[in-house]
Amino acid sequence: MEIGKKIKNLRIIKHLTQEELAERTDLSKGYISQIESQYASPSMETFLNILEVLGTTPSDFFKEPRTEKVLYKKASQVTYDEYDKGYILNWPVTQSNEFEMEPLLLTLQGNASYKNFEPSESDTFIYCLKGQVTLKLGDDDYHAVVGDALYFKANQLHRLINPKSEEAQVMIVVTASYL
To answer: What positions does the domain HTH cro/C1-type occupy (predicted)?
Structure first.
């Protein structure tokens, strides 16, 4: 690990000049420059003082950043064929229950429905990709066709239904894992 470069990056993130960091740590601007360019190594006391001024702890400073997965290839996706129940589920992001959002592709056979959901504090987004669907939300029905979106707080009993004989497909994104 290049400590000087990491100190420099933190200083820049905090919008401090070398001179400002030097003033706040009782060091010279030249010494800060030497530390950042790896020409000098600060004592433990000086290092801890610099970290304090930069608003971090030694454990956070030395923690290696986790590489965040961005691309989820089709081969890693999970599909549950519940065709005998009237639907097929496809999870494009298999670890989504570890995140704040959980996406799901739902294919509904004609005249089929996808289970009753108990009320929760989740936000739910549904985008109609194919056919049409009806959302039963409490006592209300909402009909969506291709290109329509539904967005609601899931704080009432709700169910998704395909009212037609043709297949329907929707993308669902929920802020909690309860699908």
So the answer is: 7-61
68 domain residue, yes or no = no
Is 179 domain-assigned? no
Q: What span, in angstroms and rounded, lies between the C-alpha atoms of 161 and 30?
A: 69
Residue type, 7: I
Report the amino acid identity of residue 144: A
Nearest to 104 by CA among 85, 73, 83, 125: 125
- Domain extent, residue 83, equals 74-174
54 and 82 in a common domain: no
Distance CA 99, CA 148 (A): 25
Instruction: List phi, psi (to 5°) of 82.
Output: -110, 45
Dihedral of the CA atoms 136, 90, 148, 174 (nearest 10)?
60
pLDDT tens column, 74-91: 988 899 999 899 999 999
The dihedral through the CA atoms of 38, 42, 44, 45 has a sign that is: negative
Q: Report yes or no: 82 and 146 within 8 Å, Cβ to Cβ.
A: no
Question: Are residues 105 and 28 both part of a single domain?
Answer: no
93 and 52 share a domain? no
Confirm if 130 and 168 have CB atoms less than 8 A apart: yes
Token pair belonging to 92: 């494009």
Predicted model pTM: 0.64
